[in-house]
Design brief:
The protein is built from 26 helices and 21 strands. The strands form six sheets. Strands 1, 2, 3, 4, 5 and 6 form a six-stranded mixed beta sheet that branches. The protein has a four-stranded mixed beta sheet with strand order 13-15-14-16, with no helix packed on it. It starts with 14 loop residues before the first helix and ends with a strand.
């Protein structure tokens, strides 16, 4: 043991227990010099936290030491332990990151900063602050995986001492733990950390449910103890008979796992708890399969309940054979068979493969699998401007049930349950996802929205000119796929917004006898500087997205003493009216057609600026326009272009006699008139008549009138009218 004679800066009841015992425990795997550095970090942290106390009444330094102890149990390197001892100094003291870099080094300063929350920024809500801090941490984690290991150890100790907090905070922290940190621990293969986080989160979030379930569990265990002992002895005797050296462990299911199965699968407590679990740990992989054959001879296997995670590991590196057997009295027995190395990885995950410096692991261990996941996170975050949205999609990625699918060359991809062909394509590569048009599943053609199932072989069909489709967002489930699609659409929307903004600004400048081509460059530069805009493109995009009013921008740009034409506030109020803005319906995502009134060519329409969306077009008689009467600056005079070239959706209501085949007759008449039916809903009114609501695609008002005339000619049709009317 090193002779640490330095006085602890903080006065505590048992200072030697705090640090000396901890340093003693490090001698098993760290050098003397490394332990001295750990002790120096402790002294720095103790001085920084001097006078700070935890809610439990302990000196604050107890917490960083406890966090470092958890990481030492994973045998983390000395710099990780130093960062753990210092992990709260940036967030909770006056110490800056630069000071840490000078006192220690940049590596430790980066680790501590990665764990620290964003406290210097004003956020609109607690949720936004938490999401932004989480996003910062995940990006730091992508550079150094130890960031998340420190954060998980920090969260684990906080959960162990959460009982001193008020109930509302207990529930909030527990929910965050169950939704984010426990799944991350699972994603990184940290089984022990995950189980403890889940059980502590369960106990604090639903204390009554936890107490009742624990009581029921203890009663059930008492009743079944003899049966468990008998099964265990039979297993041992059979394996000893075959000369197989192994360890047989009766495995207790943790409470949160039982609760989740009861809740998600709608099962009673007895249906879940009566599955007895055993773990058999052997020396090598071949023996695992020998043991599997022996236990299948001893008890009959339950069909469809065998899983080979050795041949196909889970995405966090977990490997084991799982089988369920019919045990004594017909009770199900779950057995997991694995090697000692697999057992170590199952408990410690990425920490069991600590190769931070060497980086020479194969593609199947937790270190490289975690690196792949982090790379996906980096790709995801580029597609999200909103930290809250990023956090929600990371939650989706954090371990739902898994599906194992194959590429044509036999590579296995692990995807979340419910993943589609598009998710698979993006899992291969972003470029493959961006240009996919269809797929072959087990050599049969399949559309992109097809949900995948384990064991399928999927081949993606690409086309050079293909681009992501906004409709994909309705059915993709992985964060990587969603992030890539959103990123493409965001860039597309910006280009469309710039084009629309240019047209809008030119129309308004026309009132002053100007356009962007003839506008003096110095006047434009002066405006851009005053508005803190980097370029003309940014100004045009802001106008196109509805963030700046083109009329106001035009007035500022034309302000040279010549005056201009006065703008009208609402359609029809000014006799001297500037040219109306023509719309074609092909402008893309920056021109939106209101669903409340569904305007079509031929309707009298008006445009409203909607920040972030562009222009929303309404029919002039739309009831919702009343809310905007007092906001004349948000109105835009619009009209339909002479040729639109696309179809528009509109809704009609058809009342028909309640007869067999009425829907088919009406639908056939609509199709006969060259219209596509997007949706139909049927409502029986009084037993005599039925109301049919059709969502149709039409060229314009004239086309709609032809359809209505055709439907009125059908004898069983009682009434037809447009909705809303």
């Amino acid at each position: 043991m090193l002779g640490f004679t330095g006085k602890a800066v903080v006065t505590v009841d048992k200072p030697r227990y705090l640090i000396s015992d901890f340093c003693t425990s490090l001698e098993s795997y760290l050098s003397e010099e490394q332990i001295r550095e750990v002790y120096r970090a402790y002294l720095f942290g103790a001085e920084a936290h001097e006078g700070q106390w935890r809610k439990s009444g302990e000196p604050f330094i107890y917490h960083p030491v406890a966090v470092a102890r958890i990481l030492a149990g994973m045998r983390m390197d000395h710099k990780c332990l130093m960062a753990a001892l210092l992990h709260d100094v940036i967030e909770d003291t006056a110490t800056a990151k630069d000071q840490l870099a000078v006192a220690f080094d940049d590596e430790i300063a980066d680790l501590v900063d990665g764990v620290s929350k964003l406290t210097q920024i004003d956020f609109r809500s607690r949720a936004e602050a938490q999401a932004a801090s989480f996003r910062k941490m995940m990006l730091a984690m992508a550079k150094d995986i130890r960031v998340i290991l420190i954060k998980l150890a920090d969260r684990l100790h906080n959960m162990r001492t959460l009982g001193v907090m008020v109930p509302a905070k207990c529930r909030r922290v527990s929910r965050e733990t169950l939704e984010i940190y426990a799944p991350i621990a699972n994603r990184l293969g940290l089984y022990g950390v995950r189980v403890e986080l889940e059980d502590l989160g369960f106990a604090h979030h639903w204390p009554w449910r936890h107490r009742i379930l624990e009581r029921a569990m203890n009663r059930a265990r008492g009743v079944r103890t003899e049966l468990v002992v008998n099964v265990e002895s039979v297993l041992r005797a059979r394996l000893d008979q075959e000369g197989i050296e192994c360890e047989v462990i009766g495995r207790r299911k943790h409470l949160y796992s039982i609760y989740r199965k009861m809740r998600d699968k709608h099962r009673s407590f007895s249906e879940v708890v009566d599955v007895f679990a055993f773990r058999v740990v052997v020396d090598k992989v071949d023996t695992c399969y020998r043991v599997l054959g022996l236990v299948h001879n001893l008890y009959k296997p339950v069909p469809g309940r065998f899983k080979d995670y050795i041949a196909i590991p889970k995405s966090n590196g977990y490997q084991s054979l799982h089988t369920v057997l019919f045990g004594p009295q017909g009770l199900p027995i779950e057995i997991q068979i694995r090697t000692e190395d697999m057992q170590r990885i199952a408990n410690s995950g990425i920490a069991a493969h600590w190769m931070y410096k060497s980086g020479n692991g194969d593609g199947g261990n937790p270190q490289s699998l975690a690196a792949d996941w982090l790379q996906n996170l980096l790709e995801m975050q580029r597609g999200y401007g909103d930290s809250v949205e990023f956090l929600e999609h990371v939650k989706v990625d954090l371990f739902p049930d898994e599906v194992y699918v194959f590429t044509p060359r036999g590579r296995i991809l692990v995807l979340p349950k419910g993943a589609t062909v598009v998710d698979f394509a993006y899992a291969i590569h972003s470029d493959v996802g961006n240009t996919c048009v269809a797929a072959r599943i087990d050599r049969r053609l399949a559309p992109l929205r097809t949900v995948l199932h384990s064991g399928q072989t999927v081949e993606i069909i690409n086309a050079p000119g293909a681009v992501p489709n906004p409709a994909w967002l309705k059915y993709v489930v992985t964060g990587k796929a969603r992030g890539n699609v959103r990123s493409y659409l965001k860039n597309l929307q910006r280009k469309e917004a710039e084009a629309l903004g240019r047209r809008l600004l030119d129309v308004e400048l026309g009132s002053f006898g100007l356009d962007l081509q003839r506008l003096p460059r110095e006047r434009l530069d002066e405006y851009l500087s005053a508005a803190s805009l980097a370029s003309l493109e940014q100004l045009l995009a802001d106008i196109g997205l509805g963030n700046r009013m083109p009329a106001l921008v035009a007035r500022r740009l034309a302000a040279d003493g010549r005056g201009g034409i006065a703008r009208k506030e609402r359609p029809g109020e000014d006799a001297e009216q500037p040219p109306r803005f023509p719309i074609k319906g092909t402008e893309g995502m920056v021109i939106n057609f209101a669903r409340c009134c569904r305007p079509i060519p031929g309707d009298d329409v008006v445009g409203l600026f909607s920040p972030g969306k562009g222009i929303v077009v309404h029919r002039q008689e739309c009831r919702n326009l009343g809310d905007f009467q007092s906001h004349g600056d948000k109105w835009l005079d619009v009209e339909w272009a002479s040729e639109t070239g696309v179809d528009f959706s509109t809704e009609i209501r058809v009342e028909v006699g309640n007869r067999r085949g009425a829907l088919a007759t009406v639908a056939a008449a609509i199709a006969e008139m060259g219209s596509n039916i997007e949706n139909v809903q049927s409502h029986e009114k009084d037993g005599v008549s039925t109301t049919l609501d059709f969502l149709l695609m039409v060229h314009g008002r004239q086309h709609l009138a032809q359809i209505i005339r055709r439907l009125r000619a059908i004898p069983l049709v009682m009434r037809v009218f447009r909705v809303p009317r």
